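BUG: 3D viewer hangs when loading the predicted structure for this chain

Environment: internal workstation, default settings.
Expected: structure renders.
Actual: progress bar stalls at 90%.

Input used:
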Amino acid sequence: MKALTVSLLDGHRERRIDGVVSVVAADHSGQFGILPRHEPLVTAIDAGLIRCRRADGSTRHLACTGGVFSCRGDEVQIVSARFLMGEREDELSAQLEQLLDEEQAEHQTSRQSRTEVERALLKRLREWSEAGRK
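Structure tokens produced before the viewer hung:
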């Protein structure tokens, strides 16, 4: 039986899963599946779980924060800012939810810091402008 090779890439590492007979992921249109010899495909996937069923019947669960999913020949590549791997879907789901919450908090902190810097710069520019008029 023909099998897929799934490559996972994030900013820190690359992992491979060989012997995969099906991959299920989701994009903006919903859930989709990939089998060996699938037509070429590139899509933006949503944050969530991905299932890779192997030829031996085992399932490898992945969680990612969203990214790019591509399939060409019998190669599937998933590029994401972060991904997690595990055997238990429920545990990965909880870990992903925590990761997404942490990222959201980091983005909020960054936005607040940027706003504070912008305000300080505008204040300083007004002061310089007023000092130049005198």
